[in-house]
Design brief:
Blueprint: H1 3-19, E1 27-33, H2 38-52, E2 57-63, E3 91-95, E4 99-103, E5 108-115, E6 118-120, E7 136-140, H3 150-154, E8 162-166, H4 176-184, E9 187-191, E10 194-198, H5 203-214, E11 220-225, E12 250-257, E13 271-277, H6 284-293, E14 301-302, E15 306-311, E16 319-324, E17 330-334, H7 350-363, E18 371-385, E19 390-407, E20 415-419, E21 424-429, E22 435-440, E23 445-452, H8 456-466, E24 481-484, E25 490-494, E26 506-517, E27 520-530, E28 540-544, E29 550-552, E30 557-563, E31 573-578, E32 582-585, E33 590-592, E34 611-618, E35 624-634, H9 654-668
Parallel strand pairs: 1-2, 1-3, 3-7, 7-8, 20-25, 29-35
Antiparallel strand pairs: 4-5, 5-6, 8-11, 9-10, 11-12, 12-18, 13-23, 14-15, 15-16, 16-17, 17-22, 18-19, 19-20, 19-21, 21-22, 24-26, 25-26, 26-27, 28-30, 30-33, 31-32, 31-34, 34-35
Helix pairs in contact: 1-9, 2-4, 4-5
Length: 674
């Protein structure tokens, strides 16, 4: 933002404060969930609801498939209104499929964000994001920031600090947004007369840690920054935030790999072992034993889903251990070192990393007998121009990642890989060899007989009929043709993230698939499909209410669904939710007359907005499936904003004039004296 522009707006703001009472300033979050998966909007809602609970934060909008328009992201010159939507908030989270589309400005096909009314390409948001309010844009989908498109997405920056996404495939995780938000927040824990305040993680740190905790092997998260210092950003109110940068044609991109040990090649098993999860006793003693490995002593704190130990004696290097109550999996981090934005951090020699990691794990009893293949990996930070000229490249955060391997057959002679974030053991080494991060303790399991399994082609036929609904980890990609590679397909098991409940490991086929959109190759990704029907998740369809049905306020609305026979393991557990009214019922079918009118809060049009009704069905093995419909409840809306009350404080005053002036300067391009 130019000095002239800031001065002009400041004059309006000063005048406004002379005539209007002071108000508490609030930062705003926003989000949009895409089409094609009920978990998209659920993930976005959980992110916004969590951020909304942080001091000083509010929620501007959290919209679903049919409510979110491409115009909300596009520059005014492309017919959009991004200044009134995504750029009117401080952080925006988009969770959806991604695809490819022709970019008319750049004259080539680039990655794109799809919507029901079109798609957004980089040229349509060129130099648009961040000139009004937006600091952080996060898009969780497959390969939006792939190598052929990343520099073009950088050209959307105009004051934006960070754009967070993925270089490769990204897999559906309903709680990704919630967990990312929670990691960014300061956490206060009270034990007797002690009070701990664990610092919130940087926006980028939290993105990478959530990737480690939720994504299967091969996933690479990528974060773009205007300047390196932007990687130090916390959320507002949680710590340091860098100043707004200016677009200068040079940017950084930071790549972090969740882990990629190769899967064992196995494709001839006709039966596979059944592995039942043996629950752990996760208590203070269990946590303290793990804490010793990381130099932690003392009391154990209790949060909603985890037990926690911490050493906060060095404010620059707080050390935090969290242990999942659900599985006993641990996550340790020296917040001052791991994923810290330090140009001088250096790198532990990769050729020595495996020996150092194994020595550490063995000494403290953290190397399980079924740890098999491993890889040595590290993060790459690159500074380059928007023309692709590389100025410098840094390598940091050396880590060793172990994969789990188990006997696949009753004879025990054929070992197979276990995929999924829950089957990950990882050690991060600082430049001096200190262990600065780690995750491990996959679930205890025991064999319980065996089960016949399908071959890869029969398994793929089920996927062709039912799509990603069958997969325990769904690739977030728009496609109209999928080509499996049966030659490289392999048999294995899938283990869910450590924070999830799981009763049995899932026998599956891991099939490399090429996904095409209109004959354009969009993505190559491993696709996980259960190898036996008894491990298929429920496949569910909402029967009532119908998609886009309209009701009057007070009408009795019926809800019902169908679960396809032969999918999932009974009994089923149901959860109906509205993005407006919250949880509605835990029954298969029910009726209610209590749905509210969903009135807009930032529109001159007082027409009611739709409800997104989401149904989640969980079977007895912990597998989930969902469906959603969009309905509208009609009624009076008298609380929506006046067209002149731009700041939403229920009165028209000089502050609204200041906001109008800022929007005028942005939309007309009059950003400096002539």
């Amino acid at each position: 933002m130019s000095d002239f522009r800031k001065s002009l707006i400041a004059c309006f703001v000063v005048a406004a404060f002379l005539v209007a009472p002071l108000e508490t300033f609030a930062w705003q979050s926003s989000g949009c969930g895409g089409c094609g998966g009920s978990y998209f909007e659920t993930c976005v809602d959980r992110f916004n609801n969590r951020v909304d609970s942080f001091p000083g934060w509010g929620q501007q909008f959290s919209l679903g498939c049919s409510s979110c328009s491409e115009d909300y992201y596009k520059r005014s010159g492309s017919g959009g209104s991004e200044n009134s939507w995504v750029d009117s908030t401080d952080i925006h989270f988009r969770n959806s499929h991604c695809g490819s589309a022709w970019d008319s400005y750049w004259g080539k096909t680039l990655s794109s964000i799809p919507f029901t009314d079109g798609s957004v390409t980089p040229g349509e948001a060129r130099r648009a994001w961040g000139d009004y309010d937006l600091e952080w844009m996060a898009v969780k989908c497959c390969s939006l920031l792939r190598d052929s498109s990343r520099a073009y997405w950088y050209t959307t920056f105009d004051g934006l600090h960070l754009m967070l996404g993925f270089k490769t495939s990204s897999y559906g995780a309903t709680n990704f947004g919630r967990d990312w938000a929670q990691r960014m927040k300061k956490t206060t824990i009270n034990i007797l007369w002690w009070t701990w305040t664990i610092p919130g993680q940087h926006v980028t740190q939290a993105w990478f840690n959530t990737t480690d905790a939720t994504q299967p092997s091969g996933t690479t998260a990528r974060v773009l920054a205007e300047v390196h210092n932007n990687y130090n950003d916390h959320l507002w109110g949680q710590g340091y935030v860098s100043s707004d940068p200016s677009y200068n044609g040079w940017y950084w991109y930071w790549d972090h790999v969740a882990g990629s040990p190769p899967y064992l090649t196995v494709n001839s098993l006709e039966t596979m072992n059944v592995y039942r999860v043996v629950p752990r006793t996760v208590n203070e003693e269990y946590v303290q034993d793990i804490g010793k490995a990381f130099g932690l002593q003392g009391e154990v704190g209790d949060t909603c889903n985890s037990l926690v130990m911490a050493d906060l004696s060095d404010p620059d290097n707080p050390k935090v251990l969290k242990v999942s109550k659900a599985s006993g999996q641990f996550y340790f981090q020296n917040i001052g070192k791991l994923f810290a934005a330090d140009l001088n951090a250096g790198q532990y020699p990769p050729e020595r990393a495996a020996e150092a990691a194994q020595s550490f794990l063995t000494e403290y009893g953290l190397l399980p007998q079924d740890a098999g293949a491993f890889t040595v990996e590290f993060d790459t930070l690159t500074e380059e121009s928007d023309q692709g000229e590389v100025r410098q490249q840094l390598f940091q955060n050396t880590n060793v990642v172990y994969a789990r391997q188990l006997p696949g057959d009753a004879a025990g002679g054929q070992m197979v890989s276990v995929a999924g974030a829950g089957a990950r053991l990882k050690v991060y080494l600082a430049e001096n060899g200190e262990v600065m991060g780690g995750m491990g303790n996959w679930r205890n399991v025991e064999p319980m007989g065996s089960i016949p399994v399908n071959d890869s082609k029969d398994t793929w036929s089920f996927f062709e009929e039912h799509g990603e609904a069958l997969s325990p980890a769904k690739a977030q990609v728009v496609y109209n043709r999928a080509v499996p590679n049966h030659t490289e397909a392999t048999q294995g098991y899938y283990e869910h993230p450590g924070s999830a409940e799981q009763q049995e490991l899932i026998p599956c086929w891991i099939i490399p698939v090429e996904y095409y959109q209109d004959d354009i190759l969009v993505l190559k990704a491993d696709t996980f499909i259960p190898a036996a029907e008894s491990y298929f998740p429920p496949v569910v369809t909402i029967l009532k209410p119908a998609e886009f049905e309209t009701f009057n306020q007070g009408d009795t609305i019926g809800f019902d669904c169908e679960v396809v026979k032969g999918f999932g393991t009974e009994p089923y557990y149901y959860k109906w939710e509205s993005n407006v009214n919250g949880i509605l019922s835990d029954q298969k079918s029910f009726q209610t007359d209590l749905l509210s009118v969903h009135c807009p809060d930032m529109s001159c049009d007082c027409s009611p907005l739709p409800h997104t009704i989401t149904l989640t069905v969980t079977d007895s093995k912990g597998s989930e499936a969902g469906d959603l419909v969009v309905i509208t409840v009609k009624g009076e809306c008298d609380e929506c904003a006046s067209c002149s009350d731009l700041d939403g404080n229920s009165m028209t005053d000089m502050r609204d004039l200041a906001l109008w002036a800022d929007r005028y300067l942005t939309q007309t391009g009059h950003t400096g004296p002539r």
